[in-house]
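Recall the central idea of this unit: under ordinary conditions, the amino acid sequence of a chain determines the structure it adopts. In this exercise we apply that idea directly, starting from the sequence alone.
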Amino acid sequence: MDKERIMNQRTNKREAGNALVAVMVSTIAISGLLYGSLSTTAVDMRSSVRSVDDVRTTSLAQAGVEQTISMLRNASQKLGTIDPMQGIRNLFAGGQYAALTAAPVSIGGRTFGECTTKATAVVNEPDRMVVAIDSTGYFPVAPSNLPPGAEPPRHKSMRVTVEFNLERSRVFESSYFINNWGWFYGTNIFCNGNARSNGAFDCANYGPTVTGQPTYDDLTWDGGDALLTGYRDDNGDGLQNGLDGGMFAGWSIAGSNNVKRAGGGLLPASNKHQFTEQHEMPNLTNLSSYEARAIEKGSTIKVGGTVLVNGVYGDGPGEKQHLYLIGTAANPIEINGPVVVRGSVVLAGVIKGQGAIYSGGNVYVPNNLQYADAPSTSRPANNTQAATEAWLEANRTKDFVAIMARENVVLGDHTNGTWRSYVSSWLAHSMNKSREDAGEDGIPNTRKGRDGILNTADDDVLEDDGQFTVQRYTADDAARGLIPPGFAVNSPIPGTGEDIDGDGAYDNTLTLANLDLPAALNTTNWGGTIGGSVTFSSIASGAMTRLDGAFYTNHAFAWLTTPSSAIHMNGAMVSRNESVIYGGPGLHMNYDARLLGGSNTVIGDLLPKTLGPVVVRDWTVLPSDPHAACLLP
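Accordingly, the structure predicted from this sequence is:
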């Protein structure tokens, strides 16, 4: 029987630290050499010295800007379990944030000067902040550090305006996204979209098909007309012809020589991207912000006209924590907007509407899950922009559901012995490590670094050292309001170091115990459509063929299905570890193009968000030092 394998890796979520841009480092170093050379020259070159000082102090001021941006992003991460923007917002309780005061700028142990910065919140919105950073570079030191009688330091001041945005996470731009090692072990895998891992991607010389999917920065609507903008030319050919996308890996791509593209032929090397930027997984440790959004929007789940969920399930008197939902063609599951279930979810059958289910536990899909009113075709006619926009226009209002699990997504009959044997073997596979001892990069099996040789400079020395290495909250974090509920000074900062799933606690290797039901299937433990005691095997199938929806978990996506007909997954699969085993004519992963368009996707308000790249809006040299009054000796 033809079997299959697919897996994952984690996005490196370490603190930005004190690094300065390379150009700035080089500029300071070169200007220091020039200054030393000029000082030994007998010729009066004071104007040249002033020019060198301008370069030096400008670089010092720029260093202050870079460090302040790093500090703001660091603050975002510290409250990332609640709201990535809230950490930045908390620094501006008084409207301004004094980030650096006469801070030395050092490179390789040598100090080149000092800088002082102050940040002002210009725009402060839930998903958007615009910050003006005033930065001054001083040489040799700031005024407050000058000895008595010394001449004033040379200085340069600038104001840089930057924008922070919460954006729909880019992990949803792929049909198959793995936050660990990605695996395509099967010639009859058809990935109709992008295949991406934050770690290595391994095809083992099988011949899967990857069609790729061009991605876009934005989607806007003019009445019923869709307009995609910001085409990403990731193969670098200068064309916007729909031939972008493909395979992406944060580490290497192995055994991909036989990977095919749609229409015949092999996938070109220009569509295989190794050592690319990692995409950060959203943090679902704390679902309070999603609960607030569900209540605000009045989101619901109904079956047969009966409302089963009003915004949040498990928060009201008499409500169970776990939810059981089986829909039929006559009485489908009807979802409207994002809802939160505080416990685990069992979900199968027919579903309609547009919405998202955020589960605080596992999500179990024991049998086929399909839309009542699905898109007319699973994919656009081709990957051109015109065809994609036409498909979006035709299917904008069709059913769509996103399933987000804080823990695992478990499909098929996990009580079956064969299921458990196959899934367990892949969870334990050496290339699919889930233990949070993966080192600085969060990727297992990279201890030797890219050169593959131990005891060289690129080794990941933290991997497999038996220590859970993370950053920890400090008293200064407490003073600035950067410690979320449930944490304290010296608690691990979620998502830092080796905390791959972002919950602030060490996780050992995933086992079948993590996938088992949290409670027996009966009306005592579960609400929803359950009518009495149910055995899981009675509602489950070992031959599932249809899965509609976008699925997310930063743990395991586990599934064994061996039908006699083709399997169709219509949406996206996003996970950390993946243990998918299939048989039959083939596995077709069809990317739902309604996920395209950045934060303005058709269903963008249903999906979790992460802090996007910092955008520089303005850069201005200031005529005077805005910090002079507070730095005089």
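The CA atoms of residues 63 and 233 lie 31 Å apart.
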